[in-house]
């Protein structure tokens, strides 16, 4: 037993708490943030879960890891034109690494399965993931390939255009190692994206389905149709409106058009479609049910939207594996994405759980 005493005091008020509890080697997860005021002070108390039950099954991300080379410009260059950038910077990124970092920063146990090259960019990405709290048991260094790269052309309004170089992300062996598939089978939820080969995603999704583990597939990444066998193993398909239009060949300007495109995804095999709609918010389309809409939580300052979609998808998955309702998941994800766009860089912009809860408490 260990005795813990917490005291919070001001000149006018004193709050004293004393308890005895047993501490185990598990992570304490903040489950609620309580705010209150006195005439002269504002206080915030975090309530932690101290249940000595086993830790929750982890969130496992299988996907890409890149070095994102940021180039800040006023506008995109025209054909044949050379522009001078205001600045340049290289940061950790990749849709898989972004989503793993987001989940870990939201204080949920997270594993990343991916590949980097034996180079400086690989060390950059590995160090960033590790410092973000991500478990790297499934990270492989591929000596024969370079680490994936993305050139991010960031305009002054926060919008971006990206050129992607796959590198080690595309150098997977045809059959995944048993230890990777075992990790997937032990997960609480699995996140996939399309910056790694479809045959990898299909093996992972099938292993998850066989173990009863839900799979979320972010549609971002490679162009081209989704393999039907992959969709059969996916529980939630998560495109943005551009990706939704590309996958279905349908317009996605209005919500009615988005709903019809989501119905087409149902016909293709996706039972649930989580649509990310930028400043228009988001919506979850469950086959046979009415859509659930979530307005965007808008930020007064937009610095960089590069990681917003990955933040949204990952935060939604964290809330889902924690047992929240679909509507609560959408709201939690919207708050996380709102905070993400206020910071430059994909992985560096991922918010922590306290910040997300504070924003939700202000809504």
TrEMBL record:
The active site is at residue 310. Keywords: ATP-binding, Carbohydrate metabolism, Cytoplasm, Kinase, Magnesium, Metal-binding, Nucleotide-binding, Nucleus, Potassium, Transferase. Transmembrane segments: none annotated. GO terms for cellular component: cytoplasm; nucleus. Homodimer. Belongs to the carbohydrate kinase PfkB family. Ribokinase subfamily. This is Ribokinase. It comes from Vigna radiata var. radiata (Mung bean). The gene is LOC106762504.
């Amino acid at each position: 037993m260990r005795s813990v005493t917490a005291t919070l005091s001001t000149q006018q008020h004193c709050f004293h708490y004393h308890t005895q509890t047993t501490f185990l080697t598990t992570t304490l997860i903040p489950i609620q943030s309580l705010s209150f005021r006195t005439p002269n002070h504002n206080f915030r108390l975090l309530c932690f879960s101290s249940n000595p039950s086993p830790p929750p099954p982890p969130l496992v991300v299988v996907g890409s890891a890149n070095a994102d080379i940021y180039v800040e410009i006023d506008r995109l260059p025209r054909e044949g034109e050379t522009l001078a950038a205001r600045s340049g910077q290289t940061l950790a990124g990749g849709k898989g690494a972004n989503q793993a970092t987001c989940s870990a920063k939201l204080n949920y146990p997270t594993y990343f399965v991916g590949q980097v090259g034996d180079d400086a960019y690989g060390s950059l990405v590995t160090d960033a993931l590790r410092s973000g709290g991500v478990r790297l048991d499934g990270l492989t260094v591929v000596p024969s390939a370079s680490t994936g790269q993305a050139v991010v052309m960031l305009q002054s309004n926060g919008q971006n255009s990206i050129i992607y170089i796959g590198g080690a992300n595309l150098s997977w062996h045809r059959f995944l190692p048993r230890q990777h598939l075992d990790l997937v089978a032990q997960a609480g939820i699995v996140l996939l994206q399309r910056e790694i080969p479809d045959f990898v995603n299909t093996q992972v999704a099938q292993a998850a389905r066989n173990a009863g583990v839900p799979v979320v597939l972010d549609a971002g990444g490679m162009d081209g149709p989704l393999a039907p066998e992959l969709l059969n193993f996916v529980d939630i398909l998560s495109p943005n409106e551009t990706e939704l239009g590309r996958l279905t060949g349908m317009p996605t300007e209005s919500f009615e058009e988005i709903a019809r495109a989501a119905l087409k995804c149902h016909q293709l095999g996706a039972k649930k479609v989580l649509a990310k709609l930028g400043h228009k918010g988001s919506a979850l389309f469950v086959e046979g049910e009415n859509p659930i809409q979530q307005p965007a939580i808008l930020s007064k300052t937009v610095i960089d939207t590069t990681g917003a979609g990955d933040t949204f998808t990952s935060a939604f998955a964290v809330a889902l594996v924690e047992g929240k309702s679909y509507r609560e998941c959408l709201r939690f994800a919207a708050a996380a994405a709102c905070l993400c766009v206020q910071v430059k860089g994909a992985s560096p912009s991922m918010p922590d759980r306290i910040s997300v809860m504070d924003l939700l408490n202000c809504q």
